[in-house]
Amino acid sequence: MEKDRYITFIISATIILAIKFLVYGKFICVSNLPIALTIIIFVVILIGVIYNKAGNENEFSLKEEEDEKQDESEKLIDLIMFGPDEKEEREFRKNNPYVKELKAKEAEAEKQLFDKFRILAGCPCTFFGLNMADEIEKTYHEALERGKKEGFVPIIVFISDILYDEIMKEFNIVTGEEISINYINSKRKELIDIASDSEGKKWLENTLQKKWNEYGGSYRYNELLGKPSNQGYELHNLCLDDYNSSDAAILAEIPVSEPWQAFAWFPFGGWNDCPSKKAFVSVGKYWFNQYGAAPAFITYNTIEMTAPQPVEGTQSLHLAKEQHTFCPDILAQTGLSTINDLADSLRKSTVWHFWWN
Asked: Closest by alpha carbon to 265, among 161, 357, 146, 154?
């Protein structure tokens, strides 16, 4: 707008000067016309230069604005993928409107997911957002002590739609149907009532026999067994960071008397090499009575259990065989080569890790 007023002023002033020159310069004559035309042409060129400069400035400004948007978009993608590591990135996440909108949507989705699991659990639950592993662990250990007095068992559940749908399927409920907590609790009670040490041990023995046949007998199995080893890992802390970086969690205070019964509260499995829900509960009871092992957290394809102390002597190799039977992926996903490596890990560790592909 200001540019247009400026140009209008130049044109008007030029025309007035040209007329004054023609009328008052000496007298009106044809010889004065070239000078007047020269002035007018000069002004037209000047106006063209002004418009061209303004256009270039406007084009540069638009390009600069597009570049800024592109930079913001790329930075946002980096933040979503890798998280805020620097102060500048945290400020960007805090103040950028795109991030705020994305965070608002994520927060609403997390709230809806938490509400679904809270209703499903049917017991007191504490919600934890992303990257709160230290707080989760602290609250979990406090709940373990409190649960002994108040009569509940705490378990950490990394919540996801996949796990929710899997649990609904195990309870024979179509996702989206209204939940009857009385019906669900009756199914939980059935699983707990049919669980037994002997069934858990029997399942492990039968499954190991099937694996033995699949391996073609002693030769290939002995190769997998390996020789006595000291190559195992040592694990005493729950691997919460690995899962809380991508999934929110709840700490459920389950109203049961023994930790293994938590497997009946959030059942999943029966796909690929993952045991069925009945096997989970019975093997969980067997290992609790044998080693004091208790489930600490679950995801849609992972569980971690804790034991009061490492397993010593020949028991460690026996348990390693059982754990490999229970979870055939256990060697590959922990970086171990043989079952004897796993036995060495059990002699050093109080946390048991299981993951199914």
From this structure: 154
Q: What angle do CA 142, 265, 205 make, to 5 degrees?
A: 105
pLDDT, tens digit only, all 357 positions of the chain: 555 555 555 565 555 555 555 555 544 444 555 665 666 666 566 666 555 555 555 555 555 555 555 555 555 555 444 555 555 556 666 666 766 677 777 778 888 899 999 999 999 999 999 899 999 999 999 999 999 999 999 999 999 999 999 999 999 988 777 889 999 999 999 999 999 999 999 999 999 888 777 766 666 778 888 899 888 899 999 999 999 988 999 999 999 999 999 999 999 998 888 999 999 999 999 999 999 999 999 999 999 999 999 999 899 999 999 999 999 889 888 889 899 999 999 999 999 999 998
Cβ-based neighbour number of residue 155 at 10 Å: 25
**Global pTM value:** 0.72
Dihedral of CA atoms 336, 342, 345, 347 in degrees, nearest 10, equals -160
> Nearest CA to 155 among 80, 31, 236, 240?
240
Q: How far apart are the first and last CA of the chain?
A: 66
> Which one, of 318, 297, 303, lies nearest residue 354 by Cα?
303
In one letter, which amino acid is 6? Y
32 touches 40 (CB < 8 A) = no
Nearest to 295 by CA among 200, 154, 108: 154
